[in-house]
Specification:
Layout: E1 7-12, E2 19-26, E3 30-34, E4 40-47, E5 49-53, E6 56-60, E7 64-68, E8 74-78, E9 84-91, H1 93-103, E10 110-112, E11 116-118, H2 120-135, H3 138-156, E12 157-159, H4 168-182, H5 190-196, H6 201-212, H7 216-233, H8 238-245, H9 250-261, H10 265-282
Antiparallel strand pairs: 1-2, 2-9, 3-8, 4-7, 4-9, 5-6, 5-8, 7-11, 10-12
Pfam families: AraC_binding, HTH_18
Keywords: DNA-binding, Transcription, Transcription regulation
Domain HTH araC/xylS-type: 174-271
Length: 283
């Protein structure tokens, strides 16, 4: 099957605040190692999704869900020649926490225990959420989302462990991350960053990877794309967003954005604008 058969739509529905939506079919697509601020709840309809998570490759086939907690590094690629087709919802942590508090016994920050869950019924619920959003059925979309998240938390939920800085290496990694967050557009070299933190470059690499699951340069790319997402949501053009977050130009942003988000920045922003236009028309 040709790569042109790949399709993806990444959008929001005003009646589901704090939730991103995705329908996609990928064949040759590979997702770079990245994280999300939201949960990933992906229901696989066809094919196999392979994603590296927790130190190993995970395989999600038809009737299963790929489940990723916020700020958890992972990748993505096809596990079979025909690729994979899926639908996904990305609820914000506060959305999941509100549902968990009302419908489960989980206390503390809720999350998913296993990254792959075999549950065709929950997969169907995810796709019904997307269909209701596409049809503009706010009551159904909101109801089905809550039913799906409740089911998944009851079957595969638990309290997320608190992340505490317990070692010198973890403290060094946290300080390095803070520096990079403040200098996305003009970050220091690894040698300069290590020297400023009074450690060796290799010690910094090791500490950062242990703390955040990726080396500083990969984390920086991920953080730049996250910042670009917020700028695009606010109406900044892709070209200006690229410059603001430190990419050399719009094609540079587009390449990394597509490898992480799954759609180009222009397509991502058009869907946001469509939601805003429809909201204004109704008001």
């Amino acid at each position: 099957m040709a790569a042109s058969a790949e399709q993806a739509r990444h959008w929001r529905y005003a009646a589901l605040p704090g939730v991103d939506l995705l329908r996609a079919r990928y064949i040759h697509k590979t997702f770079a190692r990245h994280t999300h601020e939201h949960f990933v709840i992906a229901g696989i309809a066809e094919g196999v999704d392979v994603f590296h998570h927790g130190g190993a490759d995970q395989y999600a086939g038809p009737g299963t869900l790929a489940l990723v907690n916020p700020d958890t590094p992972h990748t993505g690629r096809a596990g079979v020649p025909e690729g994979w087709r899926y639908g996904a919802v990305y609820p914000a942590p506060e959305v999941v926490a509100d549902i968990a508090a009302e419908t489960t016994a989980i206390r503390g920050a809720p999350g998913f225990v296993r990254p792959v869950l075999d549950d065709p019924h929950a997969v169907a619920l995810v796709h019904r959420v997307l269909r209701a959003a596409e049809e503009g059925n706010a009551l159904a979309a909101d109801t089905l989302l809550r039913v799906a998240v409740t089911r998944l938390l009851r079957l595969n939920g638990g309290r997320l462990p608190r992340r505490a800085v317990r070692t010198a290496g973890a403290g060094t990694a946290a300080r390095a991350r803070a520096v990079l967050e403040e200098s996305l557009a003009d970050p220091p070299s690894l040698s300069r960053l290590a020297a400023d933190l009074s450690v060796s470059p290799f010690a910094l690499l090791r500490a950062f990877r242990d703390a955040y699951g990726m080396p500083p340069h990969a984390w920086l790319t991920d953080a730049r794309v996250r910042r670009a997402l917020r700028l695009l949501d606010a109406g900044t053009t892709p070209a200006d967003a690229a410059t603001a977050v430190g990419f050399t130009d719009q094609p540079h942003l587009s390449r990394h954005f597509t490898r992480i988000v799954g759609v180009p920045p222009g397509a991502y922003q058009r869907e946001r604008k469509n939601v805003q236009d429809r909201r204004r028309q109704r008001s």
